[in-house]
Amino acid sequence: MRKKPEAILFDMGGVLLESADMWTEAGFEKSYPNGLPACFSKDWFMDMSQDIMRRYAALSEPRPAMDLRHCIAEWLPKAGVDPSPESIRHCYDYLGWWEVRPLFPFVHEALTKCNALGYRIGLISNTLLTSAYHRALFRDEGIYDLFEFMVFSAEFGWNKPNPQIFQHALDAMKLKPQNAWYVGDKPHRDICGAHGVGMTAVLVDGPYEHRVNDSPAHVPDIRIRDISELPELLASEFAG
Fold first, then answer.
1. Which of helix, strand or coil describes residue 171?
2. Mean per-residue pLDDT for 122-148?
3. Could you say which of 95, 98, 107, 221 is the most buried, measured as most Cβ atoms within 10 Å of its Cβ?
4. Residue 240: pLDDT above 70?
5. Per-residue CA distances from 159 to 10, 25, 95 (Å)
6. Domain check: are 152 and 40 in the same one?
């Protein structure tokens, strides 16, 4: 029989909201429905974004966090903008919207039910940019206060599956790994990373589920369709 966890920690993209792993033309309208400031053309912005993605992909895994401001400073003159600290900060803020998507419709209810069942809630997420906008989204959607702790890789310094980011969250929440579940959608980052520190790993099915076949380390302990199934699973498995 599985041990009842004290806490459940969640991935963000693909679990709580749509993943924005690749900054594409199709994703632009979702991230920037109001367009860009007049000083930034869409073509220039897309070219810079794709350059950032290429540089990120070239980093050796597990990738460290990447400071995008150096790349922005190189690209601003191509837009006819002086790369002053203020201009770099302004552009960096706009890049932050790439990673923001609306919450999936079931997220608020699922997290609220998990919390009401007595489970502590945390978050470990890979991001390219600091996550002020994600925190604002969570506040607007009424879920921010459900999280006891959040760590975003761009702020921490290392990306999943590096064990340091998982251990950081466990230490911050004063949790032993055997008392925590991690819920993610990417076997190669989430399942592997959670298992690497001894957590129970839960896979949300999605575009990356086929990667469970890549390695025994990618095989989850539990699979669910999405996190709407989690409260019932917990209530039935650990009733009484």
1. helix
2. 94
3. 98
4. no
5. 15, 25, 19
6. no
Domain that holds residue 29: 25-99
pLDDT digits (tens, 9 = 90+) for 56-110: 889 887 777 788 999 999 999 999 999 999 999 999 999 989 999 999 999 999 9
Report the alpha-carbon distance of residue 166 to residue 175 in Å, rounded. 11
pTM for this one? 0.91
Q: What is the pLDDT of residues 156-205, one digit of tens each?
A: 988 999 999 999 999 999 999 999 999 999 999 999 999 999 999 999 99
CA-based Rg of the chain, rounded to a whole angstrom? 19
Q: Cβ contacts of residue 194 below 8 Å, gap of 6+?
A: 166, 182, 184, 200, 201
Question: Tokens 């025994």 identify what position?
Answer: 216
**List of residues 6+ apart from 77 with CB closer than 8 A:** 83
Mean pLDDT of the chain: 94
Domain termination site, one of 69, 84, 99: 99
